[in-house]
Specification:
alpha+beta, binds FE2/S2 (inorganic) cluster, Arc Repressor Mutant, subunit A, Sufe protein. Chain: A, 5 strands, 8 helices, two-stranded antiparallel ribbon
Length: 194
């Protein structure tokens, strides 16, 4: 008889996504002070669409952590960053538990580690985008690699008035949110000039 509940044990014994993603452009690592386990996630993100093309992980953790990381990496493939950035702990937890089963209270830190590692990988992707950026005007949204020029153009071409409208068209502002004041400034300038 297994130490783990049946579905967790099944994933733990046969995880599908262990390893390193070839051509990864975002890597995140997170460790738990509770049990000493770590998990590292490798993502390959398409630069144009910001869609996750591949996701793999490594971990020295327990069956709960391995199972959660395996489900997480399986679920995020095919998703666009704009759909995942706002993901909160409860939603992530519910998504993983729906696939497996409810985690006992003393194992919820395994789920938290998965959320942290995803955020760490997104932060790494932001750094990657800054390094790769070659445009002449400033890079305003590092989450999605959107330049000042692109934001100005979408505002002008579509007569946009709010940050939400800008996000809808070019994703800028839809991640960590730190660029939203800059987007608002560009909107204000456009409104003053028009
Ligand atoms: S920099 Fe994070 S949403 Fe724009």
């Amino acid at each position: 008889m297994s130490f783990y509940p049946p579905k967790i044990n099944e994933k733990f014994q046969r995880p599908q996504n262990v390893g390193k993603t070839k051509g990864a452009n975002a890597v995140g690592t997170s460790a738990s002070f509770v049990c000493g386990a770590f998990v590292r996630v490798y993502l390959r993100i398409e630069l144009k669409t910001k869609k996750i093309l591949d996701a793999k992980f490594n971990s020295n953790g327990c069956g709960f952590l391995i199972a959660a990381a395996d489900v997480l990496t399986e679920k995020i493939v095919g998703e666009r960053l704009v759909e995942l950035h706002g993901l909160d702990k409860e939603t992530l937890q519910a998504n993983i538990e729906r696939e497996l089963e409810k985690f006992p209270a003393h194992r919820t830190h395994c789920l938290e580690l998965c959320l942290e590692v995803l955020q760490a990988a997104f932060a790494d992707f932001r750094a990657f985008q800054i390094e790769e950026f070659t445009g002449e005007k400033a890079l305003i949204c590092t989450c999605f690699g959107v330049s000042e020029e692109t934001i100005e153009n979408v505002i002008k071409e579509n007569s946009l008035e709010t940050i939400e409208e800008v996000t809808k068209i070019c994703s800028a502002g839809g991640g960590c949110g730190s660029c939203q004041p800059l987007i608002q400034e560009i909107l204000d300038i456009y409104q003053r000039e028009s």
